[in-house]
Amino acid sequence: MKIFLLTFFLLTLFSCASTNKELISHSGDIIFDQVKSCTGRGLISSVGNFSGNLTFSFMSQNDSSFCQFQDFLGRKVLLLWLTRDSIDAWNLIENKKYSHSSISEIIPVLSVLNPNHLIKFLWGEEIISKQMSVPRQEKIEIKLGKSNPNSSFVDKAIFIDNTNRQELSIKIESRIFNQNYLDLKKYWDIILS
Predict the structure, then answer these.
(1) How is the chain split into domains, by residue range?
(2) Which residue among 2, 61, 93, 123 is least crowded, i.e. fewest CB within 10 A of its CB?
(3) Which string of b and e fits 75-108 if b means at least 16 CB within 10 Å?
Protein backbone atom coordinates (compact mmCIF):
# COMPACT_ATOMS: atom_id res chain seq x y z
CA MET A 1 0.00 0.00 0.00
CA LYS A 2 2.91 2.32 0.79
CA ILE A 3 4.35 1.80 -2.68
CA PHE A 4 0.98 2.46 -4.31
CA LEU A 5 0.51 5.72 -2.41
CA LEU A 6 4.06 6.84 -3.14
CA THR A 7 3.69 6.05 -6.85
CA PHE A 8 0.33 7.83 -6.97
CA PHE A 9 1.81 10.89 -5.25
CA LEU A 10 4.81 11.05 -7.57
CA LEU A 11 2.72 10.68 -10.71
CA THR A 12 0.28 13.33 -9.48
CA LEU A 13 3.22 15.63 -8.78
CA PHE A 14 4.65 15.07 -12.27
CA SER A 15 1.26 15.52 -13.91
CA CYS A 16 0.67 18.83 -12.15
CA ALA A 17 4.12 20.23 -12.81
CA SER A 18 4.01 22.44 -15.87
CA THR A 19 5.41 25.64 -17.25
CA ASN A 20 3.70 28.72 -18.56
CA LYS A 21 6.47 29.59 -21.00
CA GLU A 22 5.92 29.11 -24.70
CA LEU A 23 7.90 26.16 -26.10
CA ILE A 24 6.47 26.40 -29.60
CA SER A 25 7.69 28.98 -32.09
CA HIS A 26 5.33 30.97 -34.30
CA SER A 27 6.01 28.51 -37.14
CA GLY A 28 4.70 25.64 -34.97
CA ASP A 29 8.10 24.01 -34.33
CA ILE A 30 9.27 22.97 -30.86
CA ILE A 31 12.17 25.07 -29.51
CA PHE A 32 14.37 22.17 -28.34
CA ASP A 33 17.10 24.20 -26.68
CA GLN A 34 14.48 25.20 -24.07
CA VAL A 35 13.04 21.69 -23.59
CA LYS A 36 14.32 19.77 -20.58
CA SER A 37 11.73 17.01 -20.15
CA CYS A 38 8.93 15.23 -21.90
CA THR A 39 5.81 13.56 -20.49
CA GLY A 40 2.98 11.71 -22.14
CA ARG A 41 0.60 8.80 -22.46
CA GLY A 42 0.29 5.88 -24.82
CA LEU A 43 -0.92 2.39 -25.55
CA ILE A 44 1.13 -0.77 -25.97
CA SER A 45 -0.25 -3.99 -27.41
CA SER A 46 1.42 -7.31 -27.97
CA VAL A 47 0.68 -10.54 -29.77
CA GLY A 48 2.61 -13.72 -29.02
CA ASN A 49 3.74 -15.21 -25.70
CA PHE A 50 2.28 -12.23 -23.86
CA SER A 51 -0.81 -10.98 -25.66
CA GLY A 52 -2.82 -8.00 -24.51
CA ASN A 53 -3.07 -4.24 -24.25
CA LEU A 54 -1.79 -1.86 -21.60
CA THR A 55 -1.99 1.90 -21.33
CA PHE A 56 1.05 3.73 -20.05
CA SER A 57 2.27 7.12 -18.95
CA PHE A 58 5.87 8.23 -19.23
CA MET A 59 8.28 10.89 -18.06
CA SER A 60 11.58 11.43 -19.81
CA GLN A 61 14.59 13.56 -18.93
CA ASN A 62 17.66 13.64 -21.20
CA ASP A 63 18.88 10.04 -21.39
CA SER A 64 16.51 8.38 -18.91
CA SER A 65 12.80 7.64 -18.83
CA PHE A 66 10.27 6.27 -16.38
CA CYS A 67 7.14 4.45 -17.59
CA GLN A 68 4.14 3.21 -15.66
CA PHE A 69 1.83 0.65 -17.28
CA GLN A 70 -1.82 0.08 -16.33
CA ASP A 71 -4.17 -2.77 -17.23
CA PHE A 72 -7.73 -2.35 -18.54
CA LEU A 73 -8.99 -1.90 -14.97
CA GLY A 74 -6.55 0.96 -14.37
CA ARG A 75 -4.35 -1.02 -11.99
CA LYS A 76 -0.65 -0.23 -12.08
CA VAL A 77 0.96 -3.46 -13.27
CA LEU A 78 4.49 -2.57 -14.37
CA LEU A 79 7.08 0.13 -13.73
CA LEU A 80 9.90 0.56 -16.25
CA TRP A 81 13.12 2.54 -15.77
CA LEU A 82 15.15 3.23 -18.94
CA THR A 83 18.64 4.68 -18.97
CA ARG A 84 21.04 4.94 -21.87
CA ASP A 85 22.53 1.52 -21.06
CA SER A 86 19.92 -0.42 -19.11
CA ILE A 87 16.30 -1.36 -18.67
CA ASP A 88 14.92 -2.26 -15.26
CA ALA A 89 11.34 -3.35 -14.69
CA TRP A 90 9.19 -4.13 -11.70
CA ASN A 91 6.11 -6.30 -12.13
CA LEU A 92 3.83 -4.95 -9.40
CA ILE A 93 1.28 -7.77 -9.63
CA GLU A 94 3.85 -10.55 -9.02
CA ASN A 95 6.31 -8.29 -7.14
CA LYS A 96 9.19 -9.34 -9.41
CA LYS A 97 12.07 -7.21 -10.62
CA TYR A 98 13.66 -7.74 -14.03
CA SER A 99 16.96 -6.65 -15.54
CA HIS A 100 17.59 -5.86 -19.22
CA SER A 101 18.67 -9.44 -20.00
CA SER A 102 15.59 -10.92 -18.30
CA ILE A 103 13.25 -8.62 -20.22
CA SER A 104 15.01 -9.45 -23.50
CA GLU A 105 14.33 -13.15 -22.89
CA ILE A 106 10.61 -12.46 -22.41
CA ILE A 107 10.36 -9.99 -25.31
CA PRO A 108 13.14 -10.92 -27.78
CA VAL A 109 12.66 -7.81 -29.93
CA LEU A 110 14.18 -5.81 -27.07
CA SER A 111 17.45 -7.66 -27.63
CA VAL A 112 18.05 -5.65 -30.83
CA LEU A 113 16.82 -2.34 -29.42
CA ASN A 114 18.99 -0.66 -26.88
CA PRO A 115 17.24 1.41 -24.19
CA ASN A 116 18.36 4.62 -25.87
CA HIS A 117 16.27 3.72 -28.95
CA LEU A 118 13.16 3.52 -26.76
CA ILE A 119 13.98 6.83 -25.07
CA LYS A 120 14.39 8.49 -28.47
CA PHE A 121 11.03 7.08 -29.55
CA LEU A 122 9.36 8.55 -26.43
CA TRP A 123 10.76 11.94 -27.48
CA GLY A 124 9.35 11.45 -30.99
CA GLU A 125 12.65 10.83 -32.77
CA GLU A 126 12.99 8.26 -35.52
CA ILE A 127 14.90 5.07 -34.82
CA ILE A 128 17.26 4.46 -37.72
CA SER A 129 17.84 0.81 -38.62
CA LYS A 130 21.59 1.47 -39.06
CA GLN A 131 21.75 2.23 -35.32
CA MET A 132 20.50 -1.25 -34.41
CA SER A 133 22.47 -4.45 -34.26
CA VAL A 134 20.13 -6.99 -35.84
CA PRO A 135 21.87 -10.31 -36.57
CA ARG A 136 21.22 -11.57 -40.09
CA GLN A 137 19.46 -14.70 -38.85
CA GLU A 138 16.96 -12.63 -36.84
CA LYS A 139 13.78 -11.87 -38.73
CA ILE A 140 12.80 -8.62 -37.03
CA GLU A 141 10.91 -5.83 -38.75
CA ILE A 142 10.50 -2.33 -37.36
CA LYS A 143 7.81 -0.02 -38.73
CA LEU A 144 7.58 3.61 -37.62
CA GLY A 145 4.76 6.01 -38.35
CA LYS A 146 3.15 9.36 -37.69
CA SER A 147 -0.54 9.93 -36.94
CA ASN A 148 -0.26 13.40 -38.43
CA PRO A 149 1.71 13.49 -41.71
CA ASN A 150 2.55 17.18 -41.07
CA SER A 151 4.16 16.38 -37.71
CA SER A 152 7.88 15.92 -37.38
CA PHE A 153 7.40 13.49 -34.46
CA VAL A 154 7.10 9.73 -34.71
CA ASP A 155 4.26 8.41 -32.54
CA LYS A 156 3.76 4.82 -33.73
CA ALA A 157 6.13 1.88 -33.72
CA ILE A 158 5.53 -1.76 -34.56
CA PHE A 159 8.20 -4.35 -33.79
CA ILE A 160 7.64 -7.71 -35.47
CA ASP A 161 9.71 -10.76 -34.49
CA ASN A 162 8.88 -13.34 -37.15
CA THR A 163 11.15 -15.99 -35.60
CA ASN A 164 9.28 -16.03 -32.27
CA ARG A 165 5.92 -14.95 -33.76
CA GLN A 166 5.69 -11.88 -31.57
CA GLU A 167 4.51 -8.39 -32.37
CA LEU A 168 4.81 -5.34 -30.14
CA SER A 169 2.95 -2.16 -31.07
CA ILE A 170 3.44 1.18 -29.31
CA LYS A 171 1.30 4.27 -29.91
CA ILE A 172 1.99 7.60 -28.22
CA GLU A 173 -1.37 9.30 -27.72
CA SER A 174 -0.07 12.51 -26.16
CA ARG A 175 3.35 14.06 -25.67
CA ILE A 176 4.10 17.28 -23.79
CA PHE A 177 7.48 19.01 -23.85
CA ASN A 178 8.41 20.92 -20.69
CA GLN A 179 11.07 23.26 -19.38
CA ASN A 180 11.00 21.54 -16.00
CA TYR A 181 13.89 19.40 -14.83
CA LEU A 182 12.83 15.98 -13.51
CA ASP A 183 15.18 13.97 -11.31
CA LEU A 184 13.86 10.55 -12.34
CA LYS A 185 16.62 8.59 -10.62
CA LYS A 186 15.59 10.02 -7.27
CA TYR A 187 11.97 8.95 -7.78
CA TRP A 188 12.92 5.46 -8.99
CA ASP A 189 15.08 5.00 -5.88
CA ILE A 190 12.21 6.15 -3.63
CA ILE A 191 9.79 3.71 -5.25
CA LEU A 192 12.22 0.79 -4.92
CA SER A 193 12.99 1.50 -1.25
Answers:
(1) 2-41+51-136+173-192
(2) 2
(3) ebbbbbbbbeeebbbbebeeeeebebeebbeebb
